[in-house]
Amino acid sequence: MSIADYGFYIICGAAIVLLATEAVVHPTAFLQVTIFGLADGAMYALVALGYTMVYGIIELINFAHGDVFTMGAYIGAAILGFFAIDESNFSAVNLIALLLVFPVVMLIMAGINITIERVAYRPLRNAPRLAPLITAIGMSFVLEGIMFVWHGPASVHFPDILPHGAAFQATIGGVFFTFKDVFVVVTAVILVALLAIFINRTKLGKAMRATAQDRDAAQLMGIDINRTIAATFFIGALLAGAGGLIWGLYFNNVFYQTGFRTGLIAFTSAVFGGIGNIPGAAIGGLLIGLIAAYSDSYIGSKWTEVVIFGILIGVLVFRPTGLLGMRVPEK
Q: CA of 167: how far to CAs of 67, 89, 171, 269, in Å?
């Protein structure tokens, strides 16, 4: 173990000791902050999975992914506008709208992301790495521009269709939580579990893992590389679209630049967990959500981004492979 590794673990240990002390001294407040952090972390995890999947296969940091997440919320809000939503009470119409909007938005965003891959990234697959990176940044601005033209600089209201009110709130041991908190975390866990099953149990999932390990060898074994990479963008956008909807349902508003900040934090989550490592991205998202919540409460919200991106710098310096390690080709 190197000196950098020792430094990394010492810093992590000190942070854990401080949080454990706070949990003992003020357990109720600590648990309340933890619930908020888990809800935010679940959304970061869904976005981080898209970053880590694409990087694991073609080693591209897809900076447009955060804006795919935001556009999912925009499109979801537009589709919900066709329903007679009653925001004061949860009705059968709200349930039907909720069941329909998720698959529709996820598929729309998947189609958009595949188009982006086919038009902007595939022609540059063999170009120097800087070219697709700049293209990804350009696509991010394109998507933000589309959303700006669509709704302008003002935030967009997302219908509050989830059950809410006194009947859907609970306080246990002084810790308050709502149906929204449970919905966000449970939905994210289900989607991550389905992704893990798909990657590990299906033929296409095995092709994706083989392509991530050695693209040339996978192609020699008969794997369609273009199809596999397109499937990666497809699945990543499914999760980003779901994440955008969950964000809208939880916060009830979305801004055209929401994906910029959220995408950077999700990218930090992917690096923290181990870029290219799917379980690492999910765990990294949850941990970054918790760290952000603890920072908001115990340090100050104005320092939260400093803390988060300080973690990014620290991980890159002391442990560039992340918590669970990057996925690297097996030799």
A: 35, 11, 11, 34
Residue with tokens 């709200």: 94
Q: How many angstroms separate the Cα of 198 from the Cα of each of 34, 108, 140, 217, 254?
A: 30, 20, 28, 22, 30
Radius of gyration over every alpha carbon of the chain, rounded to an integer in angstroms: 20
Please state, in angstroms and rounded to a whole number, the distance separating the CA atoms of residues 265 and 165: 31
Strands 175-178 and 253-254: unpaired
Domains and CATH numbers, the chain: 3-318 (1.10.3470)
Residues of the chain with pLDDT under 50: 328-331
Q: Which residues of 9-36 are buried (b: 16+ CB within 10 A; e: fewer)?
A: eeeeeeeeeebeebeeeeeeebbbbbbb
Cβ neighbours for 72, distance < 8 A, ≥ 6 positions apart: 105, 106, 108, 109, 240, 241, 242, 243, 244, 245
Residue 64: CA count within 13 A, CB half-sphere: 28
pTM: 0.86
Distance CA(254)–CA(247), nearest Å, equals 8
pLDDT for res 163: 82
